[in-house]
Amino acid sequence: MKPEVLVMAASPSASVMAQLEQHFQCHHLWQQPLEQQAAWLQGVAGGVRAVLTTGAIGINAALLAQLPKVEIVAVNGIGTDAVDLAATRSRGIFVTNTPGVLTDDVADLALTLLLSAARRLPALDFYVRTGAWEAGRPLAPSRALRGKVCGVYGFGRIGQAIALRAQAFGMEVRYFQPRAIGGVTVPRADSLLALAEASDYLVVAAPGSAATRHTVNAEVLAALGPQGTLVNIARGSLVDEEALIAALRDRTLGMAALDVFADEPRVPAALRELENVVLTPHVGSLTVETRHAMGQLVVDNLLAHFAGQALLTPVA
């Protein structure tokens, strides 16, 4: 018999979905109306041996407790902060994610957001669309990137890819994370606060966890300053959202460009109403090529597990 898999969310790749159906007996929770999911789950939970989820959805201890036979949780994404790792460890449940394959696209979006904020692209688009250009209304110049400092908070694969792109635009790059990275030429700041003080642009690329929650706080935002810009493509939990809103509203922070938020997809109205922020709906990895590669890695990890082979990308 095919192993039974609880699928929490669909992949946009038709090939990935076809492979899941070919190799596994899939129970698609995402297809069930919200009000019927609990009852539906009771009917299938007893046979589920694997869970396919996303970094945003994750899986909590309460749901795991309903799945007595689960052996592996395959996360379609990098982040595992929404997965109750204590619960999986206590039961010996394997966890995998999809690192590496989304690095370039996420780094590309980070620079896209940085450029959009620096050159005020949303405001310029609005300026043309509303006829302000034709009417001859004054337009303030933006600032060049060359020679500016791009601070990168979190210097793993994605952070280093962001650094390469920023350097290509003539920016100076510095980074901070608690553990220094060997073999890199980019200088490391002594602290996140010191990085913010030295940066014109602060790009958040660190993992979301209890240890990093609200590390980008009011003090860090004040250090970045009224000419500074915050870019976040990591997790909304790293930024104190209330402090960010206050800093943007009071202009003690110049700009922000955000792909992630504290309570997605609910973005505070106070943030949406501000003119000095660029907002995108958590789409760092949303390209056809990368979403297929992520889904394929999920399938390959599941196939390896049920074949008794080593997992390709296990989470420690």
Automatic annotation (TrEMBL):
Record-linked SUPFAM superfamilies: Formate/glycerate dehydrogenase catalytic domain-like, NAD(P)-binding Rossmann-fold domains
UniProt keyword annotations, A-Z: NAD, NADP, Oxidoreductase
Keyword NADP found: yes
GO terms for MF: glyoxylate reductase (NADPH) activity; hydroxypyruvate reductase [NAD(P)H] activity; NAD binding
Record has NADP as a keyword: yes
InterPro entries, per database record: D-isomer_2-hydroxyacid_DH, D-isomer_2_OHA_DH_cat_dom, D-isomer_DH_NAD-bd, NAD(P)-bd_dom_sf
Domain (D-isomer specific 2-hydroxyacid dehydrogenase catalytic): residue spans on this chain: 13-315
All residue ranges annotated as the D-isomer specific 2-hydroxyacid dehydrogenase NAD-binding domain in the record: 111-284
GO cellular component, as recorded: cytosol
Pfam families: 2-Hacid_dh (PF00389), 2-Hacid_dh_C (PF02826)
Coiled coil (residue ranges): none
Cross-referenced PANTHER family: 2-HYDROXYACID DEHYDROGENASE YGL185C-RELATED (PTHR10996:SF178), 2-HYDROXYACID DEHYDROGENASE-RELATED (PTHR10996)
Similarity field: Belongs to the D-isomer specific 2-hydroxyacid dehydrogenase family.
Name this protein carries in UniProt: 2-hydroxyacid dehydrogenase
